[in-house]
Specification:
With 269 residues, this protein is of the alpha/beta class. The protein has one domain: Spore Coat Polysaccharide Biosynthesis Protein SpsA, Chain A (Alpha-Beta Complex). The protein is built from 9 helices and 9 strands. β2, α2 and β3 form a beta-alpha-beta unit. α7 runs parallel beside α8 and α8 runs antiparallel to α9. The longest helix has 25 residues. The chain is globular and about 50 Å long. It starts with 14 loop residues before the first strand and ends with a helix.
């Protein structure tokens, strides 16, 4: 195979989906993620792999796939910065994030999402179902997809179980915090709060790896605690763009996230 692209690419053609995969020392699993996309029956997509200064064979492995845009970071900027770079280089109308050790559940999931986009007339966000490697499923429905319930009752803040309208992200200047741990939840909650239209796919789209062995967040240190509270400040500042009902929801979200992460830290001591 020819080498994957390692440049800032700009094509005139707009595609339906950009699947962004961030990879750091992912030589053991990155091919499974890539192949789960390449095997899709729906083919109007691009794959962007952001290699975040890996020190293993991640770059060499991804370079075998000529259809993949490979962006190599000289410095490790963590998942937030890597995902921002992926978005900047994306030409898809919709953004999907896939972790390097996750994969699509079957070959038809992009078709399913595309059909939902058509039915819902290009919503800001589409909530996606997912399952873990033990086949336990977590599915959105009409009740838990409503903004209030999504913010307060849905117990996950995964950016990868949402399909994001790129124009919506750009217009609202929604970006990941860079060079920080726990970068997902400020992006996730800002996106949910600012969204006006939504749809949901009541089907498991992604198989995710629970309790990832090499996850950046599996070992506790002072930097992670500091980053968490820095990101909580970002949530507090969202208060400035919320209406009164959203401010109340945001306050409850902040209290819940503080409680959840406090429990998370205590378990790791």
């Amino acid at each position: 195979m020819k080498g994957a692209h390692d440049i800032k690419i700009s094509y005139k053609k707009i595609m339906k989906f950009s699947i962004i995969i961030c990879a750091y020392n992912a030589e053991l699993e990155i091919e499974n993620a890539i192949k789960s996309v390449l095997n899709q029956s729906f083919n109007d997509y691009e794959i962007i792999v952001v290699n975040d200064a890996s020190t293993d064979n991640t770059k060499k492995i991804v370079s075998r796939y000529e259809s993949v845009k490979l962006l190599n970071n000289e410095k490790n900027i963590k998942a937030g910065g890597a995902r921002n770079r992926g978005i900047e280089n994306a030409i898809g109308e919709y953004i999907l994030f896939l972790d390097s050790d996750d994969c699509f559940t079957n070959n038809n999931v992009l078709s399913i999402i595309n059909q939902k986009i058509i039915e819902a007339k290009n919503p800001d966000i589409i909530y996606l179902g997912f399952k873990n490697t033990q086949n336990k499923e977590y599915l959105p429905n009409e009740n838990n997809s409503q903004k209030k319930n999504r913010l307060l009752e849905w117990k996950f803040a995964n950016i990868w179980d949402v399909c994001w309208n790129k124009e919506f992200l750009i217009k609202n200047k929604i970006k990941f915090v860079e060079e920080k741990f726990f970068e997902d939840f400020p992006f996730y909650y800002e996106g949910i709060i600012k969204s006006n239209t939504y749809a949901y796919v009541q089907y498991p789209i992604i198989t995710y790896t629970k309790n990832r062995k090499n996850s950046m967040t599996t070992n506790l240190n002072i930097q992670k605690i500091s980053d968490f509270y820095n990101n909580m400040t970002i949530l507090v500042n969202l208060n400035n763009i919320c209406n009164e009902s959203e401010k109340e929801l945001l306050s409850q979200v902040i209290l819940r996230e503080h409680h959840n992460l406090e429990n998370y830290f205590l378990k790791m001591i």
